């Protein structure tokens, strides 16, 4: 099974990714982990990314794409993977699509977790209070949500046009959302 998870910050992607990966025996590939791993190991791609990050610049798509493609070539991803945090833009999605077609391993589905903005704000503010996260203050949260909507709307259309986009109502307990998600994936026949 090869999946992409979409959803704004606070939608529960990371939590659900763990459940999905365990249920279907696939690897959870999170871009943050890839970045940290490449930088920590001092790989060529990691050093390129670090140079951009040290200057306060966004890491260019070609570097991000190369890191993800390298990660998907590792043996543990051969039986399937779940991408969390990638792709974030249509050019990234197009590059991923080309590589997966070349490998004859197309995506099985793209799962979008839907949550109202009010619920997201409540979740993220609660997370800030519980975990003391500085990236979860209300002004930063609103900016992140605007950025997400701006960049992700075209990405959602990209996957919808390919018949891959499937929605999950992400309101409720972790267990309720997990149940909905797993039910969807089983119905799609991707298990």
What this model shows, in words?
With 191 residues, the chain is α/β, with parallel strands linked by helices. The chain has helices spanning 13-24, 31-41, 44-54, 61-72, 90-102, 117-131, 138-161, 174-187, and strands at residues 2-6, 27-30, 81-84, 109-114, 165-169. A five-stranded parallel beta sheet has the order 2-3-1-4-5, sandwiched between helices. The radius of gyration is 17 Å and the shape is globular.
Q: What is the H/E order?
A: EHEHHHEHEHHEH
Largest sheet: 5 strands, parallel
Measured by DSSP, the beta-strand proportion falls in: 5-15%
Low-confidence stretches: none
Question: Mean of residue pLDDT?
Answer: 88
* Total count of strands: 5
Task: Write a short abstract of this structure.
The chain has helices at residues 13-24, 31-41, 44-54, 61-72, 90-102, 117-131, 138-161, 174-187; strands at residues 2-6, 27-30, 81-84, 109-114, 165-169.
Question: Tags for this entry?
Answer:
191 residues, alpha/beta, five-stranded parallel beta sheet, 13% strand, globular
């Amino acid at each position: 099974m090869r999946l992409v998870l979409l959803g704004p910050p606070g939608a529960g992607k990371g939590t659900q990714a763990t459940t999905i990966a365990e249920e279907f025996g696939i690897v959870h590939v999170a871009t943050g982990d890839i970045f940290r791993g490449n930088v920590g190991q001092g790989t060529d791609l990691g050093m390129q990314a670090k140079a951009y990050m040290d200057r306060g610049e966004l890491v260019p798509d070609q570097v991000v794409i190369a890191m993800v493609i390298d990660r998907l070539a590792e043996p543990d991803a051969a039986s399937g993977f779940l991408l969390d945090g990638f792709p974030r833009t249509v050019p990234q999605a197009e590059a991923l699509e080309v590589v997966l077609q070349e490998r004859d391993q197309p995506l099985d589905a793209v799962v979008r977790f839907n949550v109202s903005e009010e619920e997201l704000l409540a979740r993220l503010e609660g997370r800030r209070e519980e975990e003391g996260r500085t990236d979860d203050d209300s002004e930063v949260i609103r900016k992140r949500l605007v950025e997400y909507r701006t960049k992700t709307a075209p990405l959602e259309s990209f996957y919808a046009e390919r018949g891959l986009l499937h929605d999950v109502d992400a309101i409720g307990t972790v267990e309720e959302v997990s149940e909905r998600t797993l039910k969807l994936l089983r119905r799609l026949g991707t298990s």
